[in-house]
Automatic annotation (TrEMBL), chain A:
The keyword Oxidoreductase applies. Residues 27-235 form the Aldehyde dehydrogenase domain. Keywords: Oxidoreductase. InterPro entries: Ald_DH/histidinol_DH, Ald_DH_N, Aldehyde_DH_dom. One of its GO terms (molecular function) is oxidoreductase activity. It comes from Microlunatus endophyticus. This is Aldehyde dehydrogenase. SUPFAM superfamilies: ALDH-like. PANTHER family: ALDEHYDE DEHYDROGENASE-RELATED (PTHR11699). Gene3D superfamilies: Aldehyde Dehydrogenase, Chain A, domain 1.
From TrEMBL, chain B:
Residues 41-488 form the Aldehyde dehydrogenase domain. It comes from Microlunatus endophyticus. This is Betaine-aldehyde dehydrogenase. Residues 1-21 are annotated as: Disordered. Keywords: Oxidoreductase. It comes from the Bacteria. Belongs to the aldehyde dehydrogenase family. Residues 1-10 have a biased composition (Polar residues). GO terms for molecular function: oxidoreductase activity, acting on the aldehyde or oxo group of donors, NAD or NADP as acceptor. Pfam families: Aldedh.
Length: 294, 495
């Protein structure tokens, strides 16, 4: 038997897989405590690079049509399906779950992506409104993406949790900078390989591995980050980040408790990263003869 | 154009308006106003404040303010009311109370219009035609929602949040109180609301209307005071929801204060709205729109169009016509029915506007001010237009909150978009063009919560209002505004 070629786990930024500019790594253990891999210990500079990449990704992704966004997210589901065995094996190795539990988690993650793929072209219909204003104007309100969302991924359910926090953010047309669960960088970066082969434009999703405690405060303070998802932050860190986020009036989603990712998702994660824009347009007379176009 | 009185007599084209002041007595200004807590008007244990008539720089009335202990009482009363009568009422019954309040405002609208003009300094034309009727409309609109919450899309029986603490600004004192109270009550919450230090009177007349409507005690508590009272209210541990309209600086402090508390927050903060005028715009309508955008309420509007981005090819013509039009605006007595631009609300705001105007001159922008005469007393600023402004100047970046317009030119739509979006704010923006597709395309790309195509300053309780970025989050008005007062968190939790 030949020697296996081990994977080098790197970051996922701007559609590429760079190492940290800092050159730092940390060792990741499998469920039994043995060495599994070296992962990148992302730095502040990596976080800033990821934000810059996300801003670029946002400009194209937010202008993509809802149908196109839905197809791309569905494509992520397809790619995850095709690589299901790899994730099942990785979950068993790194988390020590049994085969059935690993299969269930991968299946649920695929289903979650399919669920959100179908949301992109319904957001405006469900969360928008035609406003019956008492003046000769056509007024409508429609959701738009908030912008760049920094996500601290949950530390339980390494694949399903990751997908459950990421999918609603990109479904709305946002770009994401996601800090993977510190103990599960291998699953997150393997998922990045799925994203990289799914027609997701470069920069729409950026994944950092390492310490949320170290990186997240920089993202919370960054003026080009518009929102925070604190799902994976422990309580003390989450409160600190909420305070830092106030400096630039970021939108913050912090779950009331530990989310049950196996349950059907509601819409709060979608709504938390959408802005309602109201547009007013004059109506008035269809005849311009009287000069009454307003 | 000569303004000498001699030429008025001889030149038939020179004419002036006769004074047309509304009677001050209609405002029924009382010598002293009291906080409204638990259904009663009670002496507060804070220091009295004197509300000034900014149109004359004279004391208008004295208001008893609340202490932190009074706030405890008010929050406790709101909690009791929430857990007691208010949550046991059906939505339909709650709605009937709100309808009553809407009617009460309409019935006392003339009085409120005069009182608001006296206390705030804005022209009676605006209080009479906008502030007061729109306040009544907000209660009427939300009254109708109270028994229809199940149709909002947040489940069959959405729950209120509990007790809301609300802090409103001085630029639309009654209207902002209505924006805050009506949706909160419609959704089933109770409130403790603090009017602004310089404009507490109309909210306390609203308290009388609420009392006359027999609203159960404690459902609405109105607690006058200065910024320290507001700060104490928003950090009060007895609240479930905080809603604030005011400056971005204070909004950031509130967001920081609430970090880790889990309390819901709505922030409606500052802005630096851009009016974009393309070369194909209907120039006369655009001029009227620009005037509305920056001189309505003397520019003391969070969504004011304080930046004018004009396409280079028409800049000269547009600015000539704009100056001619602005020169005809009548600045003066807020109670005069012919007044277009009233007083600045306070001396401190007047100082801030004056300081920023000086900064504009110092930084090299070209100053033009209306030649209109200003009253000898009171806080007045002549309508001001800065041309040759650049993106980096303070007058182009900071919210002046006064009748001061900064004009910047552009050549291409992309340049206009880049300049308009180059701001940490994102509340309002507008486009003047005769090309519908361009108006819609610009509307889609402007990063602001409210976009006005070929108009400005349109508001309606049915239309959600609120900002992007540092202009705040959460909406007021419409279905999304109402949802901000409901528990809409639908994520399943473990355990």
């Amino acid at each position: 038997m030949s020697i296996a070629v081990a994977k080098t786990y790197k970051l996922y930024v701007g559609g590429s897989f760079p190492r940290s500019e800092s050159g730092r790594t940390y060792q990741v253990a499998d469920a039994g405590g043995s060495f599994l891999a070296n992962a990148v210990l992302a730095s502040r500079k990596d976080a800033r690079d990821a934000v810059a990449a996300a801003r670029k990704g946002f400009s194209s992704w937010s202008k993509a049509t809802p149908y196109n966004r839905g197809q791309v997210i569905y494509r992520i589901a397809e790619m995850l399906q095709s690589r299901a065995p790899e994730f099942i094996e990785l979950l068993i190795t790194s988390r020590g779950v049994d085969h059935a539990a690993a299969v269930a988690e991968v299946d649920a993650a695929i289903d979650r992506l399919v669920h959100y793929a179908g949301w992109t072209d319904k957001l405006a219909a469900v969360f928008g409104s035609a406003n019956p204003v008492s003046a000769p104007y056509f007024s409508y309100s429609a959701p738009e993406p908030t912008g760049v969302v920094a996500i601290i991924a949950p530390t339980d359910a390494p694949l399903l949790g990751l997908v459950s926090v990421l999918a609603p953010v990109i479904t709305g047309g946002n770009a994401a900078v996601l800090i993977a669960a510190e103990a599960d960088p291998c699953i997150a970066i393997t998922f990045a390989e799925v994203l990289a082969t799914s027609d997701v434009p470069a920069g729409v999703v950026n994944i950092l591995t390492g310490s949320a405690t170290e990186i997240a405060p920089h993202l919370a303070a960054h003026a080009d980050v518009n929102a925070l998802d604190l799902t994976g932050a422990e309580a003390g860190l989450a409160t600190e980040l909420e305070g830092v986020a106030a400096g630039t009036v970021k939108r913050v989603y912090r779950p009331k408790g530990r989310p049950d990712f196996a349950a059907a998702p509601g819409t709060v994660r979608l709504r938390s990263f959408l802005e309602i824009k109201t547009v007013w347009h004059p109506t008035g007379s269809p005849s311009l003869a009287g000069g009454s176009s307003y | 154009m000569s303004r000498s009185t001699e030429s008025v007599a001889t030149d038939p084209t020179e004419w002036d308006y006769a004074p047309a002041p509304e009677s001050e007595a209609i405002g029924r200004v009382k010598e002293r106003y009291l906080p409204f807590i638990d259904g009663k008007f009670v002496e507060g244990s804070g220091d009295d404040l004197v509300s000034v008539n900014p149109g004359r720089d004279e004391p208008l009335s004295t208001v008893s303010t609340v202490s932190e202990a009074d706030l405890d009482t008010a929050v406790h009363a709101a909690r009791q009311a929430y857990e007691g009568p208010w949550s046991r009422l059906s939505g339909a019954e709650r709605g009937k109370y709100l309808f009553r309040i809407a009617r009460g405002i309409a019935e006392r609208s003339r009085e409120l219009a005069v009182l608001e003009a006296l206390d705030n300094g804005k022209p009676i034309k605006e209080t009479r035609d906008f502030d007061v009727p729109t306040a009544a409309q907000h209660f009427f609109y939300h009254a109708g929602w109270a028994d229809k919450l199940q149709h909002l899309g947040h489940g069959p029986d959405p729950k209120p949040l509990g007790v809301a603490g609300q802090v409103v600004p001085w630029n639309f004192p009654l209207l902002m109180a209505a924006w805050k109270i009506a949706p909160a009550l419609a959704a089933g919450n109770t409130v403790v609301i603090k009017p602004a230090e310089t404009t507490p009177l109309s909210a306390l007349v609203l308290a009388e209307i609420i009392a006359d409507a027999d609203l159960p005690p404690g459902v609405v508590n109105i607690v006058p005071g200065a910024g320290d009272v507001g700060a104490a209210l928003v950090r009060h541990p007895g609240l479930d929801k905080v809603a604030f309209t005011g400056s971005t600086t204070v909004g950031k402090q509130i967001q920081q204060t609430l970090a880790g508390t889990g309390r819901k927050l709505t922030l409606e903060l500052g802005g630096k709205g851009a009016t974009i005028v393309f070369s194909d715009a209907a120039i006369d309508q655009a001029v009227e729109g620009i005037v509305n955008a920056i001189f309505f309420n003397a520019g003391q509007v969070c969504c004011a169009g304080s930046r004018l981005l004009v396409q280079e090819s028409i800049a000269e013509e547009l600015l000539t016509r704009l100056r001619e039009r602005v020169d005809t605006l009548r600045v003066g007595d807020p109670l005069d029915k012919n007044t277009d631009v009233g007083a600045i609300n306070s001396r401190s705001q007047w100082d801030k506007i004056t300081e920023l105007t000086r900064a504009g001159v110092d930084e090299g922008a070209e100053l033009w001010q209306s030649s209109c005469p200003l009253p000898d007393k009171g806080f007045f600023v002549a309508p001001t237009i800065f041309t040759d402004a650049t993106q980096t100047m303070r007058i182009a970046r900071e919210e002046i909150f006064g009748p001061v317009l900064s004009v910047i030119t552009f050549r291409t739509p992309d340049e206009a978009l880049a300049k308009a979006n180059n701001s940490p704010y994102g509340l309002s923006a507008g486009v003047w063009t005769e090309k519908g597709s361009r108006a819609m395309a610009m509307a889609a790309r402007l990063r602001a919560g409210v976009i006005w195509d070929n108009t400005w300053n349109r508001f309606d309780p049915a239309a959600p209002f609120g900002g992007y970025q540092e202009s705040g989050f959460g909406r007021e008005g419409g279905p999304s505004g109402l949802a901000a007062y409901l528990d809409t968190d639908d994520e399943a939790l473990i355990g």
